[in-house]
């Protein structure tokens, strides 16, 4: 099978997706060794977090594996701290951000994908450029705006803020998706008597479900893992979201690594699971938006 | 159908942006913005000062210090994670026992929310009791002040950010590699091209459009990467790891009195820098015949 190649030195086919050639045992070993080391580096910190969360509080820095396995940390954060209310706040904020974000970005993406209107190119550029907006340029005006509306410390304020981050990027990705749906489908729908909104709602949306999933995922992650706005806008222990609340376990004054690790695990597991479902679409969505732009 | 969308986008992005630019030309700070104390409503009393904030920032050494560290930070993070991601993607893009297992393991850092990972790293970096220093002590090496020495802190934040950034690069590159037709490799092999030649002349050009997108995005993200620095070192020790974004944040939310105007001016400067970068980058790509 390897007779096609005439090279004598290098192992053949190492750069190809479907190699006809075989790797030399040495190359194979090097490959697996490198990948194994990289995998260990990648997996170790989260794994260590998990291990530490089962250690008694006082042994958080113990270098060994779990000696006295305990659920005490979990019990503590779930019953004796404000963690449940942070979780509830985060879920509320993230839920609203996701639903509203998906709706706005789907309609925007569709509009930009299908209609030609004056100011479209600048709008596209605005969508992309907002990715560059440093937290710093929006945080002060948003802070003042929310303060004057009385929305500081309110979940709604944070939802509005997260929409400013999530919507532009999601709209950009949705446009990429809608571009892959043939215009003929719209036309067929219109011939059959649907109005533009009916076309969008009944034909296009069902076809763009993977895109919607990715958009939803991105909105979810934006809210779930955001630190800067959450730290600045939410004060008072029971108003915090997860990103702000976890900081209170470990700061200048206290370092309660037991509670921190346990709550971190509770935060990370659902995010990782959702990520597992969405990740394949994530990059293809990104690439679609970027190359079709 | 278009109009409401444009309006919504305009309101949630346009308004704060314009207002931020306006604030950057005033002397707004904690003491003179509109605020409510108890039942008393105090109207805003700040006034326009023209471009004074900008001249003050640009004449001050702090800005240039922070800018040069931000550039070092961005370039090293993006370059390292790109190189590592590309290498690993190439290694994974072949018949390999345990391929999907490696892949899952390697993208795990992406699946865990960044702020959770950063806390984990703080646990590992802890100077007195952290795992790394305990391991070093076991090997008879002195403890390293991972987060408490300016140089080590810089290395640590870069390491953590690269750890966080590699999975994105890896997945994007893997997608790019799979879109390169395998016929090209077969033909090259028939012509006697060495693995390195195949990599240089097929793989790299084939990845061009994917890599230009991910490099642009990840440069922007890294430039603005707030959580890693804020949660790992709080910009410290001193302000040695403070990048532009965290410094602007510090001005308006950490120091007292809060200086909203300067912070907004920093924000506008950061935005201007990034816009220039994006335009130059796009020009360069276009010159090489890219679509966008």
From TrEMBL, chain B:
The keyword Nuclease does not apply. One of its GO terms (biological process) is transmembrane transport. SUPFAM superfamilies: MetI-like. The chain crosses the membrane at residues 71-92, 104-124, 155-177, 210-232, 260-281. The keyword Transport applies. GO terms for cellular component: plasma membrane. This is Sugar ABC transporter permease. It comes from Streptomyces triticagri.
């Amino acid at each position: 099978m390897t007779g096609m190649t005439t090279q004598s030195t290098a192992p053949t086919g190492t750069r190809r997706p479907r190699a006809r050639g075989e790797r030399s045992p040495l190359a194979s070993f090097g490959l697996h060794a490198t990948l194994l080391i990289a995998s260990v580096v990648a997996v170790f910190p989260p794994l260590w977090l998990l291990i530490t969360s089962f250690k008694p509080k006082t042994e958080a820095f113990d270098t060994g594996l779990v000696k006295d396995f305990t659920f005490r940390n979990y019990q503590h954060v779930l019953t004796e701290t404000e963690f449940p209310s942070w979780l509830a706040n985060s879920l509320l904020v993230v839920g609203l951000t996701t639903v509203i974000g998906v709706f706005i970005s789907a309609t925007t993406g569709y509009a930009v994908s299908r209609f030609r209107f004056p100011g479209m190119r600048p709008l596209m550029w605005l969508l992309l450029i907002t990715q560059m907006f440093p937290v710093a340029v929006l945080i002060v005006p948003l802070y003042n705006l929310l303060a004057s509306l009385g929305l500081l410390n309110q979940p709604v304020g944070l939802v509005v803020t997260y929409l400013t981050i999530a919507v532009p990027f999601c709209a950009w990705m949705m446009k990429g998706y809608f571009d892959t749906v043939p215009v003929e489908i719209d036309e067929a729908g219109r011939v059959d008597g649907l109005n533009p909104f009916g076309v969008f709602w009944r034909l296009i949306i069902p076809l763009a479900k993977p895109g919607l999933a990715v958009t939803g995922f991105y909105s979810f992650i934006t809210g779930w893992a955001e630190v800067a706005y959450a730290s600045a806008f939410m004060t008072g222990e029971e108003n915090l979201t997860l990103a702000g609340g976890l900081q209170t376990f470990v700061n200048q004054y206290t370092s309660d690594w037991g509670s921190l690790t346990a709550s971190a695990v509770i935060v990370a597991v659902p995010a990782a699971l959702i990520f597992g479902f969405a990740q394949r679409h994530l990059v293809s969505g990104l690439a679609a938006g970027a190359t079709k732009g | 159908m278009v109009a409401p969308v444009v309006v919504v986008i305009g309101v949630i992005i346009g308004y704060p942006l314009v207002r931020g630019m306006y604030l950057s030309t005033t002397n707004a700070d904690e003491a003179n913005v509109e605020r409510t104390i108890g039942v008393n409503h105090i109207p805003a009393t700040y006034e326009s000062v023209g471009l004074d904030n900008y001249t003050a920032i640009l004449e001050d050494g702090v800005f240039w210090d922070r800018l040069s560290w931000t550039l070092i930070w961005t370039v090293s993070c993006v370059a390292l994670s790109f190189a590592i991601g590309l290498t690993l993607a190439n290694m994974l893009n072949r018949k390999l026992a345990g391929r999907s297992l490696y892949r899952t393991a390697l993208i795990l850092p992406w699946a865990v929310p960044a702020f959770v990972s950063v806390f984990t790293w703080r646990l590992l970096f802890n100077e007195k009791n952290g795992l790394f220093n305990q391991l070093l002590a076991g090997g008879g090496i002195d403890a390293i002040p991972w987060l408490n020495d300016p140089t080590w802190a810089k290395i640590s934040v870069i390491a953590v950010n690269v750890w966080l950034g590699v999975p994105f690069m890896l997945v994007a590159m893997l997608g790019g590699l799979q879109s390169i037709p395998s016929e090209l490799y077969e033909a090259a092999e028939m012509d006697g091209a060495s693995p390195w030649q195949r990599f240089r002349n097929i793989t790299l050009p084939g990845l061009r459009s994917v890599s230009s997108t991910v490099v642009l995005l990840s440069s922007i993200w890294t430039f603005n990467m707030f959580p890693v620095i804020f949660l790992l070192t709080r910009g410290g020790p001193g302000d040695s790891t403070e990048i532009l974004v965290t410094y602007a944040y510090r001005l308006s939310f950490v120091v007292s009195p809060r200086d909203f105007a300067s912070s907004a001016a920093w924000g506008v400067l950061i935005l201007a820098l990034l816009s220039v970068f994006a335009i130059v980058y796009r020009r360069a790509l276009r010159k090489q015949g890219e679509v966008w």
